[in-house]
């Protein structure tokens, strides 16, 4: 009996040790499980946030096509050719600006001449005075001529 008791106590001690090991392992597994559960919840939240914020695939493809078009344009335009064209354009603009400036100066000169001519031109009052004076001189000369003609005799008229 004693041996049996001893054997049972040893078995019971072993079972208690294994129980402690299992309890400790179980606690460790539960802690890991809780940590993994929190990580899974965070992943689900991240997934939901990404679904809300994700870029529309078509928009992304369109943006990529646009970028590809811009890249292709960069290879099609030669920088030296572009700069040369811009220099020619600048020269043409300068030439046109000179022509416009010359025309403007010519217009200003013509405008000044017209202004001077208008200032020198007689106004209507001066013309009326001049017309009356000419008419008076004309009448006076005509009267003198008539007086000379009438003042002479008939024989003088024949002469």
From TrEMBL:
<feature type="domain" description="DUF4795">
    <location>
        <begin position="1"/>
        <end position="159"/>
    </location>
</feature>
<protein>
    <submittedName>
        <fullName>QRIC2 protein</fullName>
    </submittedName>
</protein>
<feature type="coiled-coil region">
    <location>
        <begin position="33"/>
        <end position="67"/>
    </location>
</feature>
<feature type="coiled-coil region">
    <location>
        <begin position="100"/>
        <end position="128"/>
    </location>
</feature>
<dbReference type="InterPro" id="IPR032013">
    <property type="entry name" value="DUF4795"/>
</dbReference>
<keyword id="KW-0175">Coiled coil</keyword>
<dbReference type="Pfam" id="PF16043">
    <property type="entry name" value="DUF4795"/>
</dbReference>
């Amino acid at each position: 009996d004693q041996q049996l008791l001893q054997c049972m106590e040893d078995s019971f001690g072993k079972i208690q040790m294994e129980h402690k090991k299992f309890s400790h392992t179980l606690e460790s597994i539960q802690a890991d499980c809780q940590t993994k559960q929190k990580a899974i919840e965070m992943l689900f939240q991240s997934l939901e946030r990404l679904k809300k914020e994700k870029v529309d695939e078509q928009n992304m493809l369109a943006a990529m096509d646009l970028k590809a078009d811009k890249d292709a344009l960069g290879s099609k335009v030669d920088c030296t050719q572009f700069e040369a064209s811009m220099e020619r354009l600048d020269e043409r603009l300068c030439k046109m600006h000179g022509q416009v400036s010359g025309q403007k100066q010519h217009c200003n000169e013509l405008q000044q001449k017209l202004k001077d001519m208008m200032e020198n031109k007689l106004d209507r009052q001066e013309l009326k005075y001049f017309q009356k004076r000419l008419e008076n001189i004309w009448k006076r000369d005509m009267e003198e001529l008539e007086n000379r003609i009438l003042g002479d005799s008939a024989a003088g008229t024949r002469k």
